[in-house]
Amino acid sequence: EVQLQASGGGLVQAGGSLRLSCAASGFTFEDYAIGWFRQAPGKEREGVSCRSSYDGSIYYADSVKERFTISRDNAKTTVYLQMNSLKPEDTAIYYCNIIGSNFWGQGTLVTVSS
After folding, report:
1. How far apart are CA 70 and CA 37, in angstroms?
2. Is 29 helix (H, G, I), strand (E, B) or coil?
3. Confidence of residue 15 (pLDDT cuts 50, 70, 90)
4. CA distance 97 to 9
5. CB 7 within 8 A of CB 107
6. Nearest residue to 82 (alpha-carbon basis) of 3, 30, 15, 17
């Protein structure tokens, strides 16, 4: 059974940092790109970042460039999202996803206070 378990969210002040983790299981982790998405209240889900499993190429949404860093540990089958210089507009539920699939983790809430 494919599982994606996101964790690491919480309440942080603007300018602070959080590191999200997405623990994956039930599939050959190193063969798939895993991405982070987020959904803010009243808004559509949007892509935040993803990292290719093949060539290591990385995508960041413009709104998070220079602040967020995605990484993955194939040995731990985990993808991380280091979020620095957080802003109130980063407040959302963050989900991880196997790119191109309909497999989603349950999400972790990030709240950034001003």
Report:
1. 12
2. helix
3. very high
4. 16
5. no
6. 17
Q: Judging by beta carbons within 10 Å of its beta carbon (0-12, 13-18, 19+), is residue 40 exposed, middle or buried?
A: middle
What percent of the chain shows pLDDT beyond 70?
A: 100
**Rounded to whole angstroms, how far apart are CA atoms 39 and 25?**
23
Closest C-alpha among 95, 75, 86 to residue 21: 95
Give the confidence band of 98 by pLDDT, cuts at 50, 70, 90: very high
Measured CA to CA in angstroms, residue 106 lies from 54, 66, 103 at distances of 26, 26, 10
Tell me the pLDDT tens digit for each residue of 38-76: 999 999 999 999 988 777 889 999 999 999 999 999 999
